[in-house]
Structure formats: C-alpha cells, structure tokens
Amino acid sequence: MLALVHSLRKNRRLLRDLVTRDLRARYVGSSMGFFWSVVVPILSLFIYMFVFRLVLKMRWSDQQGTTEVALLMLAGILVWHAFAESLSRMTNALVENQNLIQKVVFPSEVLPVYLTISSLVNMLIGLVVALAGVVFFAYVRPAEETRGPIVALWSEHAAEHPARGNGVVRALDFRCAAVGTTRADAESVEDTATPPWKHATARLGAGELSRFAPGDLVYAAQRWAVLKRRDGARFTHDGWKDARGAPAEPPPAGSELVVVAPPSRPLALSGWLVLLAPLVALQGLFMLGLGYLFAAFNLFLRDTYHVMGVALTVWMFATPIFYPAHLVSDAGYGWLVAANPMAWLIDAYREVLIYGAGPDWGTLGLFALVALLLVAAGSSFFLKHKPRFPDLL
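Below the sequence we write its predicted structure tokens.
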C-alpha cells in the first residue's frame, strides 16, 4: 500500500496528464463537448422512468411523487454509471496499453487511478445537475400538497404538521386498521379477526392490508411504533414510543390499531452537502480496489473482461436504483440489498443530495471499511504480479 502511494506521488504529473487527456478524448470532435456528461444520464433517466414508471407501473410509495422518484433515480444512475464505466475500463486497461507496458519502463499502477479519477470528474458534472433539480423543485417550484386533509388521531396534536409520533396524518396515508380483536406486545401487533385488518374508521375510511410497506407506522392509544415486517396478520415493530419518542408500554389488548404511511420527506439542501467529498473519495477507493484486482486478473484469464459486462448488468438490477429497496425485502431477498456495497453508497448519496440529511453512519462506516480493505488487497495483488505483466501480455 505504501509502495503504491509512493509511486502515485512520484508520477503525479503523468497521472494528471492522463486524466486531462482522457477527459478531452471523451468528446473530441463533439460539438457539445462536456455537455454530454449532462445529457447521457438524463436520457438514461427518461428511458428508465418510461420503462419502470409508465410501462411496468413501478410504485415506490404513496408519498413519493414523480419528481422525487426522478431525482432518486438520477442520483442512483449517476453513481452507478461512474462505477460501472470505470470498472469495465480498468479491467481491460493493461491489455489496451500493452505497448507502453512492454516497451518502456511504465508505471502501470497509474492506469486504474486515472480511469477512476476521470469517471468521478464526469460524475460530478452530473451531480451538479441533480443538485440544480433539488433546488428547483424544493425552493423555486415546490410540488403542491395534494395528499388530502389532515386527520388527527390524537386531538391534542391537531395543530401540528404530520410527523412521526404526533398522531397527525393525512387521509391518503391510511393503510389499514383493526379494533376489538387486536393483540399488542413489545415486538409485534396482530389482529385475530377474520378477515384481519379490515376495520373501517370514521375519520379515515376503509383500508387495505396489502398496501403495507416496511417503515409504516402503527398508532394505538397515544403510542406509536415503526413496522418492520409482515407475517400474515402479524406485524413486527421496533418498539412502542409515546408522542415525544420516549419508550412506552404496549397498548391494552383490543385497542384500535391504525397503520399509516410515514410522513413524506421534503426535498432539501443542507450543510450535509459537505459529505459529498468524503463520499466521492470512498467511492473512488472502492472502484480502485476492484479495478486493481480485475485488471491484473484479466491478464491471467482474458475472459474476465467479458464476464465483467454480464456481472455489472446483474449487479445493476440487484441494486435499488430503479425500484425501492423494500420491494426486495418483501420478496424475501432482503439480504441482496444488505450485502450490496453499492446499495449502501447510493443510499448515502440520496440522503445527502436529495433530502439534505445525514447518511446511515453504520452502513457508511461499513462501506468505508470495505473500500479500504479492497484497495489494500487489490493494490497488493496488482503490485505483486506487476513484474509478470510484460510476459503475460
């Protein structure tokens, strides 16, 4: 690892020239130049929005409108495109530059680095477009509230805005309800009626159990909890809380249980944008680690480059870019998202870029650990076999 840092520092002028040349070569002869960095992800967004939203009618949630979904998809597309492009190019970088490696004393370790930097610079141009979209739809022309009137489940909170735990919801957020045949404990709620969860409330009307999604809220006797999973008529949750968010005892048996969607999250910009630099740096390390590993391995098995194209396609559709992550969990494959570093990274970008919020520090820390381990292992493998590169080529 130290040898790699020393070599990159020694060859920093060469690295800078390679990055500059690659950025210029992308659009040489093009009348629009770097503007293609903006056009390509936006065109991809329109294609995927057409397929997933209009044709397949993919529903993210009742709270997320078309504008919010478009920005979420755009952020995911930008991050994924930079990752996939650089990894594909790095895998074949040694083969494409075999003349340099075979004929002169060339620091081959700079090749994956300059490709990573070039892709990230290209991605940053697109992120500026995403930020402009957030500014426009959050502050210039915010979406009008069309989600129905406010309903107070707890009358003492009727003047408050919808938020977790305050007992105030919008009628269209209503999922389902049960009363008289309910059981609640510290971990779950259940309706023993037949059919279950079909109780109609005077204030919210009749609901539908099938509309449940992980993250929904359950209200009962001035208590609330966040639902995690559904098993038939039984829901597991994260623990009862009172209106202030403090831990509370389970409600009595037979209490009215009302399940509603969580409050919608407004688009916003905030000081959390300072995390963009660390996120880009961690993404670069993650890409570089994989790039070093597969660039060297491709010399031993030339099919690696072709397999990489298929693997990236599978990986892309296994990452919640064009659909919400909870659909994967609902289908019983939640482990795919839980074990997917790119899902962790894209979620962090979305929190910072779209909602002006901090990321999940647990998953971000785990991603940082994976990125550091990958770059250490990948660079070690690369440098270990570097003397054999001319013969393998």
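The first strand starts at residue 150 and ends at 152.
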